[in-house]
Structures are given as structure tokens and as C-alpha cells.
Amino acid sequence: MKKITFVISEERLHEQLSIMALSATLKNAGHETSLVFFETDPMNKHKIVSALKEENPDFIAFSFMSSVKEQYLELGRHIKQSMDVPILIGGPAATFDQTLYNWDDNPFDAICIGEGDYSIVDFVNKYKYGISQIGLNNIILRSGKESHSNVALEDLVDPLDELPFPDRKIIYDKDDFLKNSRVKMFISGRGCPYKCTYCFNHVYNSMYKGKGKIIRHKSVDYFLEEIRQIKMDYPLEGIIFEDDIFILEKDWLAEFAAKYPSKIGLPYMCYVRPNLVNRELARLLKISGCYSARVAIECGNENLRNKILKRNLSTEQIVNSCQMLHDEGLKIGTINILGLPSETIENMKETLEINRACNPDYISANLFMPLPGVELTSFAIEKGLLGNEFSSPKSSHHVSEMKYPDDVKKFLYPFKALFPIMVQGKYIGKLFPLLMKFPLPVLKMIDICYRVYRNKKFYPPVRFSISDKIRAFRRYIAIMTD
Fold first, then answer.
1. What is the model's pTM?
2. Residue 66: DSSP 8-state
């Protein structure tokens, strides 16, 4: 038996589903797992190393996005100065960020590409320092000859019911905020068939071509039992289904709608795609217990939306889908990206207008976040709008390194901060030339306060204590402003 210690060194509002899944698989294979987590002062590296020494693991594991890559590189280097323990990394950055494969510049011993459920078990079972070729799928070793282009990939996990339920205990034992939250995240399946250029799925699907079905769902009964067990063991009054698109398979949704109300019966939020929404599907969502649905608009200009982002959605489809969901009494949230490569001020105003036509209850306005390896980032680089070597911002609430024209650069953040209230109050739009002159801290606070206020009305209705609200607000501010 080996011991694997995961490290989370940044605050979160929701569970990290990847670590819970990997921990469950490792435990199921007879290994021990633990977590080092710091709610505050995330870069106090000495405390993290001290905690790791107390855990005394055989392996240390990180899972992170490129937006926090530098934080984990620095932490890994610090760990290596004090401990001779192999470090394995996985997640989106490990899979798509080519800069991490430079062994001279990183402290890691192995990189896991793609789905790691079974690969991490194989790695833990076989890995030894100095062994360069040990036949590990999905794994690139510092001491080996594998590269991102030639690493062998395991077939995609199918059926998902083969996997054990996610190990929530590993997170909840270290973070009582997440343990006691009355809203928790679940995921019913894996995979997205669409080719949106700002998202990693089109690259992921190309990597896994011929390696199994891209779209996989847990069986309804398996999924409901997973939720039921958490409902029995922890506070749970509302659910967020974190699937990229919850409504991909209508037959699955119909069975879910028939069983979920009696077996679970909690209000939930999910993500939908406009071209899949019809009146029958909207009705299934309603009778199953859906409280709110998020619809990705992304961009109001059809040419940008369909030629550059490859969304293949008409304005009519978007507006009609929102109307059908409204007709069933569901709350609607829209998701938008501002500051896209080649986007003009007029294009962003088109995004404002389509949102007004959808009459949403909640509006999310995000800034373009260039991610390594995806098509839209390559487009920005080819157009000279982004350097070949760039850093992803910490979140989509931070302005990236894009080379915007001066007028767009001046317009972008104020428009993003005021976008939601301009959708819901047209008079605010008339005042925008004045409001955009507010200092940046004021604009950020307007943005934060709107999101917190509307979240309360849009997320599944649950009871939160005053202390929970304060802690959530503090974490949210840290994410938005750091």
C-alpha cells in the first residue's frame, strides 16, 4: 500500500471533483490518500511543507489549471528543496500546457495526460526512481522517453458505473466550509461533442479519437445512489450539476426526471445548450426539479459566435430556448465572454442586446481567458493579438495579456463590471459613459456585489448561516480581486 497526498493551495467555493474521483479510485485499489489544504495564506510554503512532512506520503499530487501554474511550480520547487518525494501533476494544465513538458524548468517527476482514473493507480503501483520505461499509459516521466505527442492513452472509462463514488471525505475533512455547504456539486457524466474554440473539449476529443465514446453518462440509478449517500451524510439542500451540458441525452434525462423527485427531490441548477432545448426537454427539466438553468450565449455577434467561436447557434435559437425555459418557470442565467480576439466595442454591445432579449435572472460577464492548446488562443496568436509566451490570468474576471486596441482596452473592464446591471436596467446603459470613469476598485465592488446579490436569487434556494455567508463572500472576493 502506498500513500498519496494531494495538495490544494488555493481557496475554492466548490469541491474539486477531480481530486475526489482520483482519491476514490486509489482507495479502491488499496492505497491511502490524504489532503493538504490551506484556506488562508495559500502561498505560505513553509507551512505546506511542514504539513506534507507530517503526512509522510510516498507521492505528492497536484491538479491545476494554467491560471495558477506559476503558484504550483513555485510550490513544487520549494517542496523539492525539503523532501525527496515524487510529484505527479494532472488536470487541464498538465494535459494542454506544453510549457510544463520542459523538465529543466519544472520540479515535477511525472505528468498525467487526460483521464487519470486508472493511470494514477498504475503509476503508484509501478513507479520507482531511475526506471525510465515501465509501460505507463497517460503518463510522461521525467526519466523516460515519452512526450505529449507519443504518450499512449488509456481508452476512456466506460461505463462510468465501474468507478467508485467520489471520495468527498478527503475534501470535507479538511474544509468544513465545503463540508457544511448546503449546496454541493455533482457530475452525471463526461464528454462534450461540440467544437467551441475557447474550450478544451475539441482538443480533448481529437486526442481521444478511437479511444471510446466521448459522451458517457453514469446510469441514473447509480447517480441517484451517489447523491443519496451524500444527502444522508452531509448537509444538502440544493445541487449544482456541473456537467458541461446536462441535457445531452434526452432518454437519460427522461429516466432521471421520473426518478429524481421521489428519490432525491432537491432543487438543482444545470447547464444547457440552446440548440438542444425544446418544449419537451424544458418540461422534463421542470418536472425533475430543476430550479435554474445556465445558457451560454458567449457573443451577440453571429459571425464571431459561429465563425470564430464555432458555436453554430443562431440568435433565434438562443432567444427561443430562454423563452421556453422561462415558460416552464425556470430561472435563466446567461454566460458571456467579452474581449474576444478581434471583437469590437460594437460587437460587445450586440452581446448586451441579445442578453436583454433573453430576459435572464442572472448574467455572468467574463473576460476572454486564453488557455494553452485551444483553437481560439492559437487564433489570437496568429493575428498578433497575443504573444507566443503568455500567462493565463487567474480567472475570467481578470484582464488577460491580449493586445487590445486602445479604445477597447479602455472600454473593456468597465463594460464587463457594469454589463449585468445594464442588461437588467436599460437606464444604466445610458449612464455608462459616466459610470465607466469610476475607479477600478469601485467597478470591481459593483461587479462583486451584483454577483453575490443575484446568486442568492438564482442558485437553488437553501438556508445559509450568517457565518457561512461571510466566509463565502470572503472567498468570492479573493477569487475576483486577487
1. 0.93
2. G
